[in-house]
Fold:
Amino acid sequence: MEAVVAIGLASNILQLTECGYTVIRIANELRRSGKETTRSNAETALVAKEMRKLSLKLTKDLPTSNLNQDEEALRQLAQQCVQISDKLLALLESMKVRGPGILNWVKAAIRIMREGRQRNHLQASLDNSRKQLNIQMNHMSQSDIVKKLEQALSITTMSRQDILYLKDHVQTLQKESAVDLINKTEFFNGLQKVVESPLRQIAILQSIQYPRMYERFNNVDPAHESTFDWLLFGAVNESAKHQTHKVFVDWLKGESHPPHVSDVHRKAANEGSIFHIAGKPGAGKSTLMKFLCEQEAAVEHLKTWAGEKHLICAMAFLWRLGDDEQKNLSGLKNCLIHQVLKAAPGLIQHACPSEWESDYTKTTSFDPSGTQAFDLLFRDGRAFENHKIMVFIDGLDEYKGRPTELISNIIRWAAASPTDLKICVSSREWNEFEVGFEGYPRFRIQEWTRNDIANFVSDRFGEMCASSTSVTQQDLDPLAGMITDKAEGVFLWVRVVLETLEQGVLNGDEFQDLKEKVTAYPSELNDLYQYLFDSIPELDRKKAFEALIFTHYGYTSSPRHLLQFKFLADLAKDPDFAMKLSAEPLAEEELRRCLTNTHRQVNGRCRGFLEVRSPEKAMHVGDKEVRFMHATVEEFLNQTHIKMSIERYLGDIDMYDRVCQSFFAFAKSIDTAEFFSQEVEEERTRESEFIKELSDIMGIFVGGPDFPGREKFVVYSKKRFLAFLDNIQKHGVERMQKRLGGEQEIVVQFMANNEHWISPAAQVVPILAAFCLIVEYLDNDGLCDLRTLLIDSRSRKDIIIAATYGMVFDLDSPRAYCMLEVLLRAGMSPNELPDQRVSPNFSEGIWRWVLSRLFLFGVHENVKGRKSSWWWPPDHLQDGAYQYRLIGLFLRYGAGEDFGLRFGPCYEVIGADRHVVQVLATDSDGKPASEDPFSIFVDYQLDIVQYATRNGGLLNLRQLLRYCFPHDYHHLYSLLEKWQTSDTGGDAVAPYNNSSPVDMLVLFPRQKLHLNPQYAAPVFVFKEAPEDLKECFAHSRSCFNDSEARLKKSSI
Structure:
């Protein structure tokens, strides 16, 4: 019985019980009064009729067959209530006065007295039914409803709206029903808890999950039939391979080797809880890891290890070509903790204590940190009290960061719970992984897959020959051994070779021709790529290279649509093709014809470097996606000599403009809900594919091109790009608005923060331009009049929010400076507080946020390094004085000086002869600037700390400016004083024209920061000090007591 039906049954039962209580109340009143009147009997009859009606409804709501034990008990109780009601109604009917006159009233009174015993018996029966109903009701609240809600949680098919409906329904029942009975109150409290708990669990799980968490796993091709079976099931007549199987399976089972096994293998199987699978690029590591994740045999082996504890399996597939979350440490932790908490929802309250207490009914997500939940759960061991966890991590070489950082984290996780956590990892054979996992059990995949490759080749030959008249499988069998030998364990090499052979078979090549091709193919993968690259016919090279570079641009996020490659060919003939193209969508017949021809062209020209496959979600009829057939292709194309070869053919082509125009043509040619409408995933609305792809294209503009055409990109593409945005705003956004219908608001996702909010659909391009810091579109010479937009309060907030998020990780770029200048010039106040939808990181306002970033964290090396970028910053940002001018920019527009840094207390680093001081961003009185202020820990001996000590532990903005710019602070002081006495009505003060560079002192050098031992990164504390610090009261009291006293005084 579904959870909603269970609640409905509970409602019926409660109404039925109310009737029973009403009957008892009426009967007691009759007994106490000693009088029974027709009026009283009429009331009793009314109650009996209602009781009978509700009982029949309850019976009807139950399933007609296959009732479980609880449902059968409910059915019997309902039938019993119907029978009692019928008897009572019949009795009351016999008690009625049968006409006027005293004699009839006397007869009625006699009948009432005579039937009194039977009436009492019915009352007793009703009372007994009530008790049984209460017992059954409480039992069902703890079994059936709990079971159904847990089932909904496990499969995540019940949406938040569904559970909110249950919650509201229970609250309605609470209000409408009497609460004077203890057992009823307890029932409602219990039922309320039953509904609340799964709702909180689902809300937290959905907030931890990022959009493409399992994309890489889903895109990995499954293993060919019987491939890798030897690893889990053993290898017949291959003792060495069977021994590898034995070591791995024993590791899964947590078993020791029998005495006859060598000491080397016994040591490997029992050394720690990590297993390392290494291999060449393209050897099938990801396919093997997916095979292990999906095999029931692996789970059965692991259950032997888990014993009586519950087994949880989690996996993460890192992907260098994916989003940041798919290749960094926080994304890895989020992916793993999401699966662990989903498998064991009882751990959620412990892993996310603050989020558990949050208001989950809000439409905006509170976005708990999966990283913090992971650390908390794995650090204190709570996850392993009743569970054992198996983790598969694929593609360590795809990690965005230092490999040694990832290795140290994995080893630390395993060492913390060696008996309850196993981690199987795969990577290329890099020195970092070979050394880092030395001593742990491992094998090299290419050493054991010869038979797997041979079987794969034989099966593919059978498929080829089924459609060939020139060769038979018997003809091709001699080639199988050649291919297997030359592959040297690399499945990807085999795949590329077989695809080219298949093309030859389809072309009618004779056996000798096919043999010569196999003989000519180099055995090394990179050499094979070079051979295929060089074999592209001269006449096809320009179009083939265009397709490869076009795909490269697409690999920033999503693969390209096949239809866009059709428009790529059209644009080669006429760069303005998209602008001239009709806005009418393509007819289905024409669409299919274009896709068929384009598919053949991509396959024929690109020599297997690109593959065309069906997407997870089609954007239109017949939609296909185009991507590199393997990540190693992109690595090959990034080689300098390959880039130079491509540039010789594409040097006169602006490939970025081709990207823009093909997207514009695509948006014109289709009109589908899949592309333009927003997607509702579980309870959260996701941005449309149209907005997602447009955002990616705008991000490429900001990052600059990495391939041919980059030199003239600045001169030529800027104008074309702004025209492209204008066309998209006119045509694409208009089509999106039509799809929205009456709902003219859209979700905008900012991937850097996984934040999203609702914005007017009509402003999507200006909002995305602000987020990407595309100043060219928003300044006075651009196509969007920002001053007009900022007049409207809603647009003003959205633009400022988007620009603020765009500067989170790019504050040190000239684009951030120019965007701030454009916003301030258009009327934004530097002291303006953010919209309530903004992340707590900005709750103190942009000006304070900028100061916190500059003083506490500084900026990247300096802005001079940006000169190598395709986008040249204005002259006044090229002199090394970026921080000085950024502060001056805000002060010129009236920024206040209510900012300071508070120093203290002092801490001892446990296990080290070192003292550190907490530095906190505050207002000028020392109060935290926000609920979650920025905070770092720095060496006690730093000069700035001693300077702060002499000033009572608190430095205000003027003191910080004087300390950072000892020779140039006077001008900044003058700006502060001008605004304090100015009557200019908000006009900006003229900029400072000092021609000499003014470098800002680095207050807190990285080597002087206290690093988090888990991440080798600065500790940013918001609520309490890290565990490896303990307060040093001597230093704190002697050095910072003045600051504490001042703070207390200001609080009063």
